[in-house]
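Review session, final week

We close the course with one last complete record, chosen because it touches almost every idea we covered. It is Glycosyl transferase family 1 domain-containing protein, a protein from Endozoicomonas elysicola with 605 residues. Go through it on your own first, then we will talk.
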Amino acid sequence: MLFESSASGCMSLYGPALSALEDFSAWRKNVSLVHGEMKRKIEVVNGKRLLILNPQGAIGAESIRFMNFPGTSCMGGQIAFVRNFAEGIKAVCPDTKLTIVSQRTGASFLGMFNEGVEDIVERASISYDGSYIDKEGVENNKNAYYSRVSEWGERLVTDKYDRHTPAMIFMNYWDSYLACSSMLDEWRTAGVSRFPKIALVPHSMGYKKFIALLKASVHKEEAANPAINKTEIVNREVKQLLSDQRYLFPSRILAERLMISNPSIKVILNSPEEYDTQLSSFPYTLPFEELRTVFDNQANIRVIHPGIDTEIFGLNNNPDMFEHEQFAEEVFIDRVSKDISSCRARLPVVLALGRLDRGKNFHGLANAYIGNQQLQDRVNLVFVINGSSRDVNKNYIMEMQGLIELHGEEKVRTMSIRLDKFTGAALEQLIFLANITNDPRIKGKWTALSLPAGKDYAGLQRYLGRHSNAVGGLYSLHESYGLAPFETANCGIPVVVSNKTGAVDELVKAGAKSFDPENNAQLAEALLLTLNDFDQIRKAQIDYCSTKSWANTCKQYMEFINEPTIESSTSIDQYPITPFAVDDEDTIKMGERLLWAAVKQEPDL
């Protein structure tokens, strides 16, 4: 039995309870934003081994295609973290060995790293036979993936480490906790007396997905039948989600609570907003059956802003970027010549670069541009949008306008008419943008282009940063952080920033103008103010962003992790991480009770 329901059982497992905060605002007010600040000298870890637990990943040839898209705006966050972390550790601790654990690692694993980094990294696959299990695609064998993760933790101890534990372990997701707990159990059995320092860098939390799915289902039912009893809908949909074998929400969210409230685990966030939007959710803060809350671990939570690849995104003379910059210049000039009126071809541009997602608010930018004549007179509007085939120099928005004119929106949504495999939310956003920009007031004043690889994205920004008074931005309706604007600014393109993003405080400090993303007039005004004070803002942002290297970020990681924890003992017998079985009946029931309690606290359910 994993947990005892009595208070004494939980107390013996987790140690004395710490007093919970009444409000987390005090923590946010006093949180240490340590960018550029060092409180202590970093403890030397050269010659030791660090372990990154990324068990759900599949790193190989397919990953390298994604790795061609530098920056988390263009690739999966967990793969970006693995690569960038390795680059930073190489710079800070060049003799440290870094073991990267994923479900599957291909022979081309080392190809995702820059030259020299392969000297310090090694791969460890949890799949001996090379197979890959989609953790959200297992219906009939729900525990196949998680059993593999747990068993791998045991094998790693037996095959590689035996009694020699790594110096530090980094976790990203709750399945990392499964691997970590199984490793600890094996080390206990083997008689190991000390355990590594552990850090959690959470990329996403399960309750955010759980509550989004629940609210979407409830709202859909209410729209279809307004007379239906809302409580009945909520109860039915919660039961469905709790039993959904694709997500295993009860086990997942309980494991997350154990991780972020554990007084021996350091938690690293990108911004205070991540605390607001993820860690402060009810399942992690609600007093529940004597379990600790995230408030009990507040001293072990630190905001450390992530870095950017300053070699790729910058105005340096990096020879590896020359061909990408030259290629992007040719594509840009060709696209402008096709879509922009010749009399406007040399005007500066407002740049929107990223994936097709309504939350990115490209539609808000388009509407702000349409509604402001002064902005239209001074700049052209440029979108950079890629389709799945990575075609070069296609204006997907104009192509969609043509399809809508020929076939109508509904037929465009069918399989036979879809443009370059755009589907779902991306297709809807493309249709939305096509309708907005099909406005005679901005004809000949805007364009959209596509590029085949991520380094070409960087090349375009480097080119525009050198040769055009271009302005970019983070326009999002909501974003927990967002690295893309820092990458853009370091290329010499000053940015504006939505005040609903985690990056707003940093960028405003560097001179960026902020705006309400749902107020188009404010967005237009922020762009005009940036154009009016272009040189000064551009210099301030370059000066700030040039310090945001991953080497600096990793240095801060090491500094923080080596600070004493609330419970600083690393004696393995006192370490409050228990073996965690995803299919344990008591675990599932406790997770279900926790989620029911959380849902009851939701004000709009």
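Two points worth writing down before the exam:
The longest strand covers residues 49-59.
The first helix runs from residue 7 to 14.
Good luck, everyone.
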